[in-house]
Amino acid sequence: MKVEHIEFRELFLAFFSMAIFSIANVYVINIVFFAFFVASIISTHGKITITDNRLLKYMCSYLAWILVDVIIVTVNRNYPIGLRNIIQVVFEVQYIIWAMQIDIKIEKYTDYLIKIAMIYSLILIIAFVVTGTFRHMDQIFGVYREWGEKIFPGNTTSAPIPFIFALFLCLYYNKGYGRAVLITIGGLLFPSRVSLLALLIVWFFFAYEKITRNSKAIIWILCGTFIIVLPEILVSISNYFPDLIYRLTVTWDRVDILRTVYHYVHQHFFVGYGGRTLNQLYSLEPYVTSTGAAWPHAHNFIFEEMVRYGVIGTILFLLVLICSFKRIKDRKIRFIYVLFIIMSLFQTYMREFNYIFYIYIMLSIKIKGDDINANI
């Protein structure tokens, strides 16, 4: 019997980038991941190349502005600076891997990520049943939305990201529909509006790829019909899943966040607040919204950049994203890249280490059919 050789670096990277974590321990996990990633780079013995000089220039300009911005804002406004502020600046450096090609066996990493996602999904399903949460499916988007918070170190909004990426890779490399379904269930067990739609979009994208041209026309007709009758469908569903309809239609929280962001951004439009996020600003420059809520972050990567580094930092970061997108030649990889960017308009996924690393993987995967990626 042939024993498969284990690539420990790729296995460890897959394990940590699949990790579910909460806002409370994101800094700790980031430190562990960042330290290991630096160590893995050192272990490559110089097998690192710059794959895109223009992207590197944009990234260095962005990082230089961050450093200047933090110094200017801190000195001019007499803001206190603590360990968290230093960590935030250090973690911005992680984005620079997008301009690099590191000696990572992508095919091994991908294989490990899919397998870990499957194991995680099985554990989540077992816990979902053992805890009796399955009996409250009608409230799974309401009072039971964070059912696994006390069991797993994750929250409903960040947890599905690894499952979405693992699902995409599973379908991209034709690893089997059984595996894909299992991973999908795992992603859905942390109810989130954005992740629910993202998982469905990934499935739709690959299903759409396989149907004939005539069938595609029928699909679009059905989609148009679905949109027209959507209000009636929502009314019918609300009889069985009232919390689901509430989660899909609630907007007051986003409006309140927008008001909060506007209050801060219009005061310091160009330079922002030197890397500080909303929950740091409440004590520095108090502001209370009409709802009285204290939002921890902007729930939108563009708003988050505006608050932290002003319009200058936001423009530089968008240039980095555009340049990195142009590096991707595979249409399917471009799809998941764009999907992840759209998802970040509703959460601050950009601040999560696994999100950053997933985009690195997207940039490193060659067009499907290349020798290195033809078979995993």
Structural features, described:
This protein is mostly helical and 376 residues long. It is 63% helix and 2% strand. It has 15 helices and two strands. The chain is globular and about 55 Å long. Residues 368-376 have low confidence and may be disordered.
Q: By helix and strand content, what is the structural category?
A: mainly alpha
Percent of residues in β-strands? under 5%
SSE topology string: HHEHHEHHHHHHHHHHH
**N→C terminal distance:** 19 Å
Low-confidence stretches: 368-376
Estimate percent helicity: 55-70%
Let me know the average pLDDT.
Answer: 82
Within the largest sheet, what's the order of strands? 1-2
Number of helical stretches of at least 4 residues: 15
Summarize the structure.
With 376 residues, this protein is mainly α. It has 15 helices and 2 strands.
